[in-house]
């Protein structure tokens, strides 16, 4: 690990300047310029065609839904939408870019001059200015075999998968973030968190950082306190978790400060974040815009959304996620700690939808905050990927409220729905799970349990009514948990009078 300066000394002597570039894969069914599917996890090179492979004579066609998503992102970030924006060719060679250029936007991005008020943990906000949000296509994926680090250095050979090549991207670029001081790492994380929540709320992307559908490049430079000119920046590429964004910024601040304090110069370069130890490692020298030789793509006409379309899309933005959370927290009377736990679980949207479907907030929070996360964990999927809808969860809660299911029986119904056995009522019928209320059936089970436990009967008759719990438990076991426990207790006490 490189020599680092103590963090307190860093912020005492230097002012950090950040710039965040976030790439977001849009959740469209097809790619940006062709009709190939975009589903994650397909076998390598099975979602390709002449266009996304850059074959001679294959011409691109713009994905209209991707353009609409880009406009909605721009509007949600308080950007102006350009009446006419153009695509350009960004020229560079890399093995996973089959055309040897990337179709992007350069001097005429679709959205520009925006901002977002980022909520911080102490309840304050930090305004981050957005320079631009532009459309482009993703590259393919390289897998370097035989390298200890997974990178090309030391690899024996590389495998290329072009399924991702051409997937629609929006790149969101901030203006320099100054004045953050010792809170710079926190603000970097909070910004990416807010962006992830915003994009998920818009429904334009699944924002899965672990799968690469949202990737953050963190630019950082240091300038001595009191100096106006920015220092030389580095760009830490493809940081793939919220925590890692914070760790990477903090590490780069300490590393660069150590270099400057030793009389050295920071090199303008890309760097790679190392998840194992939270460090960054040098990559390639950073290119400038001139190195890419941008020029207008001759195969694509300008994008010119009508004012009517822009206003129509503006009407779909809705309430900002953190504003909605604050309102929900106040309405439901949740503590900051409980709300933070629910946010960390990623369950807020599901809970709200379950309440909208008729459940009480407490019941919805109980299911989405406990049993359902356990199921997601055991099935090795994300919570929002569970095969159950908020409406189905609300129906299970209603069955409990109606006395047709106990909490334990309800868990079996949830499992049945998750296993694809149908709607909650169908699972109840198929598994025979409804609570038994018939006194005739219950009385026989109670009589059998009393006959098997004469000592308990004597205790109950002697006034120790709490001993009835043993009989109730035996009846519940005999009826596979389907008996109405309250009614069973009434029958037990009546029999022992």
Automatic annotation (TrEMBL):
<keyword id="KW-0067">ATP-binding</keyword>
<dbReference type="InterPro" id="IPR017958">
    <property type="entry name" value="Gln-tRNA_amidoTrfase_suB_CS"/>
</dbReference>
<comment type="subunit">
    <text>Heterotrimer of A, B and C subunits.</text>
</comment>
<dbReference type="InterPro" id="IPR006075">
    <property type="entry name" value="Asn/Gln-tRNA_Trfase_suB/E_cat"/>
</dbReference>
<comment type="similarity">
    <text>Belongs to the GatB/GatE family. GatB subfamily.</text>
</comment>
<dbReference type="InterPro" id="IPR023168">
    <property type="entry name" value="GatB_Yqey_C_2"/>
</dbReference>
<feature type="domain" description="Asn/Gln amidotransferase">
    <location>
        <begin position="349"/>
        <end position="496"/>
    </location>
</feature>
<dbReference type="Pfam" id="PF02637">
    <property type="entry name" value="GatB_Yqey"/>
</dbReference>
<dbReference type="Pfam" id="PF02934">
    <property type="entry name" value="GatB_N"/>
</dbReference>
<dbReference type="InterPro" id="IPR017959">
    <property type="entry name" value="Asn/Gln-tRNA_amidoTrfase_suB/E"/>
</dbReference>
<dbReference type="InterPro" id="IPR018027">
    <property type="entry name" value="Asn/Gln_amidotransferase"/>
</dbReference>
<comment type="function">
    <text>Allows the formation of correctly charged Asn-tRNA(Asn) or Gln-tRNA(Gln) through the transamidation of misacylated Asp-tRNA(Asn) or Glu-tRNA(Gln) in organisms which lack either or both of asparaginyl-tRNA or glutaminyl-tRNA synthetases. The reaction takes place in the presence of glutamine and ATP through an activated phospho-Asp-tRNA(Asn) or phospho-Glu-tRNA(Gln).</text>
</comment>
<keyword id="KW-0547">Nucleotide-binding</keyword>
<keyword id="KW-0436">Ligase</keyword>
<dbReference type="InterPro" id="IPR004413">
    <property type="entry name" value="GatB"/>
</dbReference>
<protein>
    <recommendedName>
        <fullName>Aspartyl/glutamyl-tRNA(Asn/Gln) amidotransferase subunit B</fullName>
        <ecNumber>6.3.5.-</ecNumber>
    </recommendedName>
</protein>
<dbReference type="InterPro" id="IPR003789">
    <property type="entry name" value="Asn/Gln_tRNA_amidoTrase-B-like"/>
</dbReference>
<dbReference type="InterPro" id="IPR014746">
    <property type="entry name" value="Gln_synth/guanido_kin_cat_dom"/>
</dbReference>
<keyword id="KW-0648">Protein biosynthesis</keyword>
């Amino acid at each position: 690990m490189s020599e680092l300066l103590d963090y307190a000394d860093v912020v005492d002597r230097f002012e950090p300047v950040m710039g965040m570039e976030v790439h977001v894969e849009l959740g469209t069914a097809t790619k940006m310029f062709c009709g190939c599917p975009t589903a994650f996890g397909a076998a390598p090179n099975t979602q390709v065609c002449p266009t996304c492979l850059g074959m001679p004579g294959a011409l691109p066609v713009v994905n209209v839904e991707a353009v609409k998503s880009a406009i909605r992102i721009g509007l949600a970030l308080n950007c102006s939408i350009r009446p006419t924006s153009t695509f350009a060719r960004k020229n560079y060679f890399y093995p996973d870019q089959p055309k040897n250029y990337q179709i992007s936007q350069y001097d005429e991005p679709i959205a520009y001059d925006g901002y977002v008020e980022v909520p911080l943990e102490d309840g304050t906000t930090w305004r981050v200015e957005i320079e631009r949000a532009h459309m482009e296509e993703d590259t393919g994926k390289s897998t370097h075999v035989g390298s200890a680090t997974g990178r090309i250095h030391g690899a024996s050979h590389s495998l290329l998968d072009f399924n991702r090549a051409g997937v629609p991207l929006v790149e969101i670029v901030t203006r320099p973030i100054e004045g953050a001081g010792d809170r710079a790492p926190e603000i970097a994380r909070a910004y990416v968190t807010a962006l992830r929540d915003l994009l998920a709320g818009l429904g334009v992307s699944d924002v899965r950082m672990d799968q690469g559908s949202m990737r953050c490049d963190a630019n950082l430079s240091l300038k001595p306190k009191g100096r106006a000119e920015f220092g030389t920046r580095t760009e830490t590429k493809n940081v793939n978790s919220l925590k890692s964004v914070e760790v990477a910024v903090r590490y780069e601040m300490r590393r660069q400060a150590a270099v400057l304090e030793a009389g050295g110069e920071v090199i303008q370069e890309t760097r790679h974040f190392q998840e194992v130890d939270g460090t960054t490692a040098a990559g390639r020298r950073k290119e400038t815009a001139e190195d890419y030789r941008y020029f207008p793509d001759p195969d694509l006409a300008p994008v010119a959304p009508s004012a009517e379309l822009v206003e129509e899309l503006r009407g779909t933005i809705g309430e900002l996620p953190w504003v909605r959370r604050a309102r929900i927290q106040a309405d439901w009377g949740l503590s900051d700690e409980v709300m933070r736990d629910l946010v960390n679980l990623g369950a807020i949207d599901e809970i709200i939808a379950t309440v909208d479907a008729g459940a009480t907030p407490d019941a919805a929070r109980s299911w989405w905050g406990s049993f359902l996360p356990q199921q997601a964990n055991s099935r090795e999927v994300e919570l929002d990927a569970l095969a159950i809808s908020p409406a189905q969860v609300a129906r299970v809660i209603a069955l409990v409220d109606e006395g047709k299911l106990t909490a334990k029986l309800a868990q079996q119904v949830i499992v049945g729905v998750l296993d694809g056995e149908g709607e909650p009522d169908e699972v109840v019928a198929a598994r025979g799970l409804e609570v038994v209320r018939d006194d005739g059936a219950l009385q026989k089970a109670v009589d059998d349990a009393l006959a098997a436990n004469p000592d308990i009967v004597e205790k109950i008759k002697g006034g120790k009514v709490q001993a009835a719990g043993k009989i109730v438990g035996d009846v519940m076991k005999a009826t596979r948990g389907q008996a109405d426990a309250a009614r069973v207790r009434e029958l037990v006490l009546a029999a022992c009078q």
